[in-house]
Specification:
With about 140 residues, the protein is of the alpha+beta class. It has 3 helices and 6 strands.
Length: about 140
């Protein structure tokens, strides 16, 4: 699947959970995807930081999208394994994720992502993630 920014936006808009979270694609390149979303009160933990599950979902879908852009025709990239490491609390006004395919393949692709919290023009790395994407036949 060849992904340009309009195609990536359409791809994200077909994922109801990403729409609900407010995730929007920011840029796309060969094996690379950047996404962003506003930090809103409903995404917070009782501790005043963004819930780790929100950041993991942002990273997961971004990595999957990067892998999808390099997937062979007729295949979907789906998460086979996901690992996240929260480095510090995420606070601010927006989350930004930068995802990249480390090694594309015919049946598996390996990806990594970094999630940043933005506030007052400052960007802070808050999560690192990696995922193995299985490239499965697309169903009709």
């Amino acid at each position: 699947m060849t992904l340009d920014l309009p195609a990536l936006r359409a791809f994200f808009h077909r994922a109801p959970f990403m729409v609900d979270l407010g995730v929007e694609p920011l840029s796309v390149g060969e094996g690379r995807v950047a996404t962003g979303m506003p930090i809103t009160p409903r995404l917070m933990q009782h501790t005043g930081q963004v819930h780790a599950g929100v950041m993991a979902s942002l990273a997961d879908h971004s990595m999957g999208s990067a892998a999808q852009g390099l997937a062979p025709a007729g295949r979907w990239a789906i998460t086979a394994e996901l690992k996240t490491s929260q480095l510090r609390p995420a606070r601010g006004t927006r989350l930004v994720c930068e995802a990249v395919v480390i090694k594309p393949g015919r049946t598996l692709s390996f990806t990594e992502a970094e999630v940043y919290a933005e506030s007052d023009g400052q960007r802070t790395l808050v999560m690192k993630a990696s995922a193995t994407m299985a490239l499965v036949p697309a169903s009709d």
